[in-house]
TrEMBL record:
Keywords: Acyltransferase, Hydrolase, Transferase
CDD domains xref list: NUDIX_Hydrolase
InterPro entries for the chain: Nudix_hydrolase, NUDIX_hydrolase-like_dom_sf, NUDIX_hydrolase_CS, NUDIX_hydrolase_dom
Protein name (database record): Aminoglycoside 6'-N-acetyltransferase
UniProt GO molecular function: aminoglycoside 6'-N-acetyltransferase activity
UniProt superkingdom: Bacteria
Family that this chain belongs to: Belongs to the Nudix hydrolase family.
EC number: 2.3.1.82
Record carries keyword Hydrolase: yes
């Protein structure tokens, strides 16, 4: 079984919204996710997060702190995964899809109420994201 390593960036703005991307292959239904992707070469998890957020959204970010590590197995893809989640802050750049994989179709800031109803790429992240909002209140 192959092992996949990646990073995800949770970015909350001053309006209490989280940065989300609409993703999917051209021929499949699109779903929402926080910006994320796989490590390349000898990148650290932090470097991966910074690169992936920039590629998917155009924003330059800084890491505030590590939030959690999600590990699991995808039977469908015959791989185990380890994803590091970081709280991040936008420090520059501008909203622009520049994903080299062509999988990102939209970028939006979503409220807590919207996240409750979104079709997520990783449904298991919903509770985690809802808890992030609750911590801010």
């Amino acid at each position: 079984m192959k092992k996949w390593f990646g990073s995800s960036g949770v970015c909350l703005n001053s309006n209490g919204e989280v940065l989300m991307v609409l993703q999917g292959k051209t021929d499949e239904d699109k779903t929402w996710s926080i910006p994320s992707g796989g490590k390349e070469g000898n990148e650290t998890f932090e470097e991966c997060c910074i690169r992936e957020v920039h590629e998917e959204t155009g924003y330059d970010i800084k890491i505030i702190k590590k939030l959690k590590v999600k590990e699991g197995i995808s039977e469908e893809h015959n791989l185990s995964y380890e994803v590091h989640y970081f709280l991040i802050q936008v420090v520059g750049g501008e909203r622009n899809v520049q994903d080299p994989d062509g999988l990102i179709h939209d970028i939006q800031w979503k409220s807590v109420n919207e996240i409750e109803d979104l079709v997520l790429s990783f449904p298991e992240d919903r509770d985690f994201l809802m808890k992030m909002f609750n911590r801010l209140e």
